[in-house]
Design brief:
The complex is a heterotrimer. By secondary structure, chain A is mostly helical. Helices cover 74% and strands 4% of the residues of chain A. Chain A contains twelve helices and four strands; from the N terminus they run H-H-H-H-E-E-E-H-H-H-H-E-H-H-H-H. In chain A, the strands form two sheets. A two-stranded antiparallel ribbon of chain A has the order 1-4. Chain A has a two-stranded antiparallel sheet with strand order 2-3. Chain B is mainly α. Chain B has one domain. Chain B is built from 16 helices and four strands. The radius of gyration of chain B is 21 Å and the shape is globular. The N and C termini of chain B lie close together (12 Å). Chain C is α/β, with parallel strands linked by helices. Chain C has a single domain, classed as Rossmann fold. Chain C is globular and about 50 Å long. Classes of the chains: A mainly alpha, B mainly alpha, C alpha/beta.
Amino acid sequence: MMGQAIQVLVDAVSVGGLYALTALGIGLIFGVMRLINFAHAQLIMIAGYAVLLFFAQSAALAVLGAVVGAVLLALLIERTAFRPLRGADPATLLIASFAVSFFIEKTMIMLVGSRPKGVDFLSALARQVEIAGVRLQLLQLVTILVSVVLLVATTWFLKSTRLGLEMRAAAENFRMAEVLGIRANRVIATAFAISGLLAAAVACLFVAQTGLVQPRMGLQLVIIAFVGTVIGGLGSLPGAAFGGFLVGVATILLQALLPPELRVFREAFLFLAVAVVLVVRPQGLIPARGLKERI
Amino acid sequence: MSTRGSAIFDGGRIVPLLILIAVVLALAGAAEFAPTVVQRRITQGLINLVAVVGLYVFVGNSGVLSFGNVAFMAIGAYVSALLTMPAAAKGVFLPDLPAFLAATEWPGLAGALAGGAAAALVALVAGFPLMRLSGISASIATFAILVVSYVVLGNWTSVTGGQNSLMGLPIYVGLWTAAGWAVAAIVVAFLHQESRSGLLLRASREDEVAAAASGVHMVSHRLAAFVISAFVSGIAGVLLAHFLGTVRVETFYLDLTFLIIAMLVIGGMRSLTGAVAGAIVITLLTELMRLAEIGVTVGDMTIAAPGGLGDALLALLMLLIILFRPNGIAGGREISWPFGPATPTTETQPRKPQ
Amino acid sequence: MTDHSDKPSGDSLVEVCGLVVRYGGIAAVQGVDLRIGAGEAVAIVGPNGAGKTSLLSAIAGIVRPSAGTVEVSGRPLAGLALSDVVRQGIALVPEGRNIFGSLTVMENLRLGATPRRDASVAADIDRVFADFPILGERRDQPAGQLSGGEQQMLAIARAMLSKPRLLMLDEPSLGLAPTIVDKVYELLGQIRAQGVALLVVEQNAARAFALADRACVMSRGVFTLTGTPEEIGRHEAFDAAYFGVAMTPTAGAA
């Protein structure tokens, strides 16, 4: 019984970690651009295909390929689609992001077809280990470890580097940051690069877990993680990470605790929560302090 | 009522409506002489037109992007299906249906109106708290409506059949049924945007300060647009269901949302002309791409575009429109007689209150 | 004095010529000429909605003028990215201060030094802390927790860290208690004494006049009076120009 509880907990934390990384990637872009980047799903997808391309050579090469692929794609869409629209109204940005997301997905379907492809990536991690009498999957522990490391690293970057400082300033008040001489292009491109990096990490862990790659692979992750971004507080980076984590944990706990006939509706509960948060507490659980334009 | 009516008929404001109706009827008339396959494509295009006009009623007038209208299509489709399917078919696909629904066999039109009304009711209930939100928050809320409806319809197995398709719906939607509803949708959208509520909503879209100042009232005008928009979208869902003869929850999710939004954006989401133009142009382009994907056979060789090219190009076109012609094909204006002066849209030349 | 037809002399810092700022159909600034010499303090006063903030925003590069030019040391600002304006030696303390509330006092100050590459930033920040012990005590607290007056001091100190040649302030006394306003203007006097030019937009005309070498009264998008503060204070048209609409509801122009 105790062992089962710990298993559920580890499950919840590892899934929470994946969602936290995804929500943080979405939150970073929203913070500096007030843009909801639907195409984050395609960053994860492209990283997944990079893994497919290189996993046979070596796992390290696959991870490297995933990072390079997602970061390059993130920079590319920033440069070609979002930079020309900077300063456009939020509705236009939203539509543009929707279009970019679909364009990449449909292009990928055109190029490689929509059928899932099997990937034998890090399958060694799928084995169970026994720790203090509890059987746990090694991959889950790795997922938790990677999530923690990346969240700490991102926090360090934001708190302790010059660029991180500029990014936080831009997230709070973009116009004032520019008045002080902060270069918008540099800050926004960096935010996209980091979100690409986070997407690549999520893709690697996700592919290792499912063993599959397909053109729509990032979609579900991003939709759920987005719930976390909103619940945590749009524009707030700690809020995004915390909200993502919370949503991940909630999905697992709902899965474990809800009666079976209600389990299938758990995503509906999550989105009901989104609607409730938007109406009752629009700034989210961890509000972005001093955010100039409330959305 | 009579003064408002005459205001619409005065000064050529009704011209766009007449032209749009004429275009729809001309298209349907032309399709009458086309091969069956093309006729079916045009019919589907007209159904899409109803959906785009439905989306336009809310998005075009409020300036808030909605991801939720496909949910209203789904609600319309399922409600109409449940009310009109032959009892025998329900017995096969929905054995657990509550008794009062299992026996119902309404005529098509009653089912359609009920479908639209159900969608409007859901929009009213959901919109009551959510229409207070503005900008991105409101769009996210409509996205929540889409996901919740998708999950609920996809898993409420006893009533909707869950992930399985419902089959055996009466197939009563042909070319002229679709054309008739398309005309009706255009008329509804036109009357709404010329109504006091519609004009105020459009004015608020142009001037956020004025909108904030008139706060509470804006919410009710926005809600009104949302409900009407949901009704028209619900009808579009009904039409799609009774055109295909089947309902499947997967039909009503992101791909259809994308298609409808793309049509509105490409046509131009700031005018009814844009909504109609987007639906027609994209329907024709999609048909061309479909033919290209089938390919041309020259001797032994078939030259064909790669499958999925059409979807990718549609997304690309939408992106290019946003980047280079943000007001779409119609440019934010309503259509006018080719030789007369352009009819200004309501926001550039507001009608004096009378 | 505001004649711009003569060639800018060596000590002309900012030269504004025929500036027009339009938002949609509304012209907030309708043709303004202004020249600020190095080290000169200029006050712009006028009623709400006169276009003062729009003028500052145009000089700071935040809004693009519909017509006219802004030149800094003979170089046009047009086409420069917003983030490069401060690199021309122009710093802005906008209305409402716009400090970063979620960042610490220290971080706000470090951001003020963004354009600088020299090694003396840390020493300059230490000097700020020496001059304003309260900021030093709270260097690691979120700036949003400071009082209004402390935030204004922080905003000015932050702007000064870019080592500007011209410091522009929009309503620096707005919403502050009179004793705090004294301190703000005392600080501005010190800044002026360092040879930094000042362009202060104020509704509180008396304060700004005490500081300025030259003053402009702005109303409905144009300068209605320019001259020394003494000249303008004595001018019989001053009250009418300044309070224009509000004080003379019977005036035909209103």
